[in-house]
Amino acid sequence: MKPELLHFLFSLQQVCDKFNRMMPNNIRTMRMAKEIQDLTKNPPHGITCWPKNDRNDLLEAIVQGSEGTPYANGNFRIDIVIPERYPMDPPQLKFLTKVYHPNIDNATGLICLDVLKMPPHGRWRPVNNLSLILTAVQQLLSDPNPHDPLDSTIAQEYIANRTLFLENAKKWTKLYAMDNSSTRPSKRKSMDEETCEDTAKRLRPSSPTKPTTSEEPPSKASTVACAQPSNKTMLKRKNDNESVFQETPKRFHESRPLDRSEDDSIPEKQ
């Protein structure tokens, strides 16, 4: 085979490999852009979902517990990772909020749901989307499946003592899921961050501050000079407007008490 033909085939193989690597990412990007738009405009009831850090392969969702269940009034945070081969492969979901549930692992937050598994053990299909998956998770909270559990202890309690299970589920919901996380997390600093910053400011050595005004405080000498009375008298010349100063002698008015017993006292009137 000619070297030119071998070089052409080798270049063609490289182009095909690069195209095969790029295609799944392009499909995922286009698919996720549409799904995020649909979740923003028409979200399912009690479900909120948004991308994290403006990425379409990392998302976060909040699923509200349905009324009439021990998870009512709870807001459960879910972390979503979209694989490279999506929608051929299912997304990976896990709870960030602790849930007392037989199909949810308390340690890792993993979810046992058939729609998140590939066939033949699961029912994932490429036509499924995030809206359907999050709705299925919300339905799982309302209707647990104790026959396919991730926590066998809770599953056994659900089967043998339903009343105790409902009490424990309500306690966990009130303890971990009843907060103000029904909306996207704001960028406001947490209480711990503010406390750490205040502590750092107090420990930081203070730098000397300069006076803000340009006026300097009067000196001690000038203060004393202003307090003492002046011995000069300002006079005005007749011919010009120049002012001259003339030292005036100090006058001491010393009063001497009169003593009528002395000889030079004032004579009395005869």
Shape: extended
Note the main sheet: 4 strands, antiparallel
* Poorly predicted segments: 185-191, 211-215, 220-240, 250-255, 258-267
Looking across the biggest beta sheet, what order are the strands in? 1-2-3-4
CATH architecture verdict of one domain: Roll
Structural class: alpha+beta
* Mean pLDDT across all amino acids: 76
- End-to-end Cα distance: 167 Å
Helix content: 25-40%
- What pattern of helices and strands is seen along the backbone? HEEEEHHHHHEE
Secondary structure: number of strands: 6
Residue fraction in strands: 5-15%
Query: In the CATH scheme, what's the topology name of one domain?
Result: Ubiquitin Conjugating Enzyme
Number of helices: 6
In CATH, what is the class of one domain?
Alpha Beta
Written description of the protein model:
This protein has 270 residues and is of the alpha+beta class. The protein has a domain at 8-184: Roll (Ubiquitin Conjugating Enzyme). It is built from 6 helices and 6 strands; from the N terminus they run H-E-E-E-E-H-H-H-H-H-E-E. A 4-stranded antiparallel β-sheet has the order 1-2-3-4. Strand 1 and strand 2 (58-64) form a beta hairpin. Helix 3 (152-160) crosses helix 4 (162-177). The model is unreliable at 185-191, 211-215, 220-240, 250-255 and 258-267 (pLDDT under 50). The active site is at residue 112. GO terms for molecular function: ATP binding; transferase activity.
